Amino acid sequence: MKRWGMGLCALLFAAGLQAETMHDTGHHHQAAHAHAEHMGSSPVNNLKEPGQSAFAAIQEVVATLMADPDTDWSRVNIEALRQHLIDMDNVTLRAEVVTEALPGGARFTVTAQEARVARSIQTMVSAHAGAMNGVEGWALSADLIENGAVLAATGEDVERIRGLGFIGLMTVGMHHQAHHLALAKGLNPHVH
After folding, report:
1. pLDDT at residue 21 greater than cutoff 80
2. What is the mean pLDDT of the chain?
3. Higher pLDDT residue, 55 or 1?
4. Do residues 118 and 90 make contact, with C-beta atoms less than 8 angstroms apart?
5. Partners of 140 in the beta sheet?
6. Which residues contact 102 (CB under 8 A, 6 or more apart)?
7. Cα–Cα distance between 31 and 98 in angstroms, integer?
8. Is residue 22 packed enough to be buried (19+ CB in 10 Å), middle (13-18) or exposed (0-12)?
9. Distance between CA atoms of residues 59 and 50, nearest Å
10. What is the pTM of this model?
11. pLDDT(11) > 80
């Protein structure tokens, strides 16, 4: 812990030194190079992962919004995106799934004892079934139950449906990124 604290102090000192040097002398390149040497790395930052996937998703959306001169900032709602990512995390990591074979597919009963996780399940499963019904030739339907939801999926390729399972079906389609951007822009992507 002591090493971590000292490293953090060194980083903050170096960052302050860099800012002071840039402000006082205007030698940004020299300050950045000195900071990189002090930290034991090259001046080129090759790191891409911010350390947490939800944070990374929000960072990506914020960067996209900031780069778009047509962004309507009066409608932007990053908190809605954060809440959606909490739902995704709850469904992915905290839900219990019971799978049953159906003729032509499978039924997934997705539940949780914790109320907030159950609400996340209900939100995600109903929205996904509505948005993805018919995609890949699959019929998706959702029924809400007291502590979660039931997702039924049927189609021509039964083995693929069963092989993907509940969470695999939830990931199908590259609609998530567009969905995240719509949420952040203050739109309701669940309304068709």
Report:
1. no
2. 81
3. 55
4. no
5. 153
6. 152, 154
7. 57
8. middle
9. 9
10. 0.70
11. no
Kindly state the tokens that stand for 191: 């309304």
Phi, psi of 105 (to 5 degrees): 170, -140
Question: Which segments of the chain are extended strands (E)?
Answer: 96-102, 105-111, 139-145, 148-154
3-state helix, strand, coil in the chain (%, to 5): 60, 15, 25
Q: Where are the alpha helices (DSSP H) in 39-74?
A: 53-67
4-8, 72-76, 133-137: the lowest-pLDDT one: 4-8
CA separation for the pair 103, 176 (Å, rounded): 29
Among 93-97, 108-112, 144-148, 187-191, which stretch is predicted with the lowest mean pLDDT? 187-191
Task: Give the number of other Cβ atoms within 10 Å of residue 35's Cβ.
Answer: 18
- Strands across the sheet containing 148-154: 96-102, 105-111, 148-154, 139-145
Helix H or strand E segment including 78: helix 78-94
